[in-house]
Write a structure and sequence with these properties.
Layout lengths: L2 H13 L21 H23 L2 H15 L12 H15 L2 H7 L12 H8 L1 E6 L4 E5 L4 E5 L10 E9 L14 E10 L2 E12 L5 E10 L2 E9 L3 E10 L2 E12 L3 H6 L15 E10 L2 E7 L1 H10 L8 H11 E7 L5 E20 L4 E17 L5 E3 H5 L2 H20 L3
Parallel strand pairs: 1-3
Antiparallel strand pairs: 1-2, 3-4, 4-5, 5-6, 6-7, 7-8, 8-9, 9-10, 10-11, 11-12, 12-13, 13-14, 14-15, 15-16
Helix pairs in contact: 1-11, 3-4, 4-5, 8-9
């Protein structure tokens, strides 16, 4: 089975099908609610401000400050003889929290939740954990870690710079997957469960869990990483089955959404079907119908969600009529997307429509430096670049780029998703 076929279809979902059909929350307004375009714009602006406020409050939690101080101590003195702590998955998450505290960018935390790498110099995660496990206590006078033997990995340290005793700890427990692996390189390098806890004065303030299940071929059927910093939670999940490939990320506060993103593909992903296809299948959009029956995605900021309806067969037929995806220009792509996608933004609490969306060719000018062989000098030239973008279209016909109200969160997360799928393809792409 070539896992590349599975990852390619989800990459196409994220990269080509930006927003398509997804399940709505089952909320039915008791009385009709009508907002003017100006009210919708104002609500969108407030929605963005509320999201910024929620993220600012999260990055200033005392527990995040404790995590930041812990990473400062790791940077001051490396506790390991070989390798660096920042390459171990749960500790990488703590470094991401430090970055989150500085920038408020949840994308850094999201990226860390999809990491599962061993320490530098170790051939497997299992070997790495066995090499470093033990209890490391911070010696404040000597500014270094002191190790004693142990069966799990524990760091004991002051919770902040004013403390003189080691009243905080960060513990990591790791369980390796011992079943069938997809290829030999994954033996001992496939985690099944990881639990990490940041405890201060016997109170668990931060908990990280990574759980994985694998099918009979050793391919992960579920991967889930969850980071809880009460009352906030980060969750990253990938599901693979014979009929569904899905990925989602959610940043919540007391279960209420701050930012969420998801993409999925339904179709025939059985081993027999995938192996029956040519190796080049799903390298082009025209091949989607050979595997997928529906492509779904969404992005949600606080109570505003973007979604739509996609026609997979219509998409493929339209692209074929244009001579194939390799022969399409940007205007062709816009025409195909607008014909086969009905997209909209709406409020999740009352399902009232805010605006429809429209794909368009976005033109921008870039200044580039060009070497002039005659004058032997660099010259500045202006070039025009075209890209397919998406914008909101309000009821009065006014338009606004998606980035105006949603920022560049989708772009960051879709880039991270592509990286994640590349990692998966590297691990499971050949046998």
């Amino acid at each position: 089975m070539n896992f590349t076929k599975v990852t390619s279809i989800v990459t196409l979902t994220a990269g080509i099908v930006l927003f398509s059909a997804c399940k709505k929350e089952t909320v039915t307004p008791t009385t009709p609610i009508v907002y003017t375009p100006e009210q919708n714009k104002s609500n969108l602006q407030q929605n963005g401000l509320d999201a910024m406020k929620a993220m600012d409050e999260a990055k200033n939690l005392e527990s995040v400050k404790n995590a930041t101080y812990f990473t400062d101590l790791l940077s001051k003195s490396n506790p390991f003889e070989d390798g660096t702590p920042a390459t171990l998955m749960p500790i990488k998450v703590m470094y991401a929290l430090k970055n989150f505290k500085e920038t408020g960018d949840q994308g850094a935390v999201y990226a860390s939740l999809r990491e599962a790498k061993s320490l530098d110099g170790d051939s497997t995660i299992d070997m790495a954990f066995n090499d470093v496990k033990g209890t490391y206590s911070w010696n404040k006078e000597l500014n270094k870690w002191e190790k004693t033997a142990g069966n799990i990995l524990v760091f004991q340290f002051p919770s902040n710079e004013t403390k003189n005793t080691n009243n905080a700890s960060f513990s990591i427990d790791f369980k390796a997957y011992t079943g069938t692996v997809y290829n030999e390189d994954l033996a001992g390098n496939t985690p099944e469960k990881v639990v990490a806890k940041l405890t201060v004065d016997n109170n668990v303030l931060v908990q990280f869990n990574f759980d994985a299940t694998y099918n009979a071929d050793g391919i992960p059927s579920n991967l889930e990483a969850n980071l809880n910093i009460k009352p906030y939670n980060f969750n990253n999940k990938l599901t693979l089955s014979s009929s569904l490939v899905s990925h989602s990320f959610a940043f919540t506060h007391n279960t209420a959404n701050i930012f969420a993103f998801g993409t999925s593909a339904k179709g025939n992903f059985t081993k027999a079907h995938l192996e029956s296809l040519n190796d080049n299948t799903v390298s082009k959009v025209e091949d989607l119908t050979k595997i997928a029956t529906s492509l779904n995605a969404y992005i949600q900021l606080m109570k505003v969600r973007l979604e739509g309806n996609a026609d997979v067969n219509g998409l493929v037929n339209s692209i074929t009529a244009k001579g194939g995806s390799d022969n399409m220009n940007k205007l062709d792509a816009v025409e195909v997307l607008n014909k086969n996608f009905t997209l909209k933004a709406f409020y999740t609490d009352n399902l009232v429509n805010i605006a429809n969306t429209q794909f368009y060719v976005d033109k921008s000018q870039q200044n580039i430096s060009v070497w002039n062989e005659t004058t032997q000098e660099w010259e500045q030239q202006v070039t025009e670049e075209e890209d397919v973008n998406i914008r909101l279209v309000f009821e009065d016909g006014s338009k606004a780029d998606l980035e105006t109200y949603f920022g560049n969160g989708f772009e960051k997360l879709s880039d991270d998703l592509t990286t994640f799928l590349t990692d998966m393809e590297t691990n499971y792409g050949s046998k």
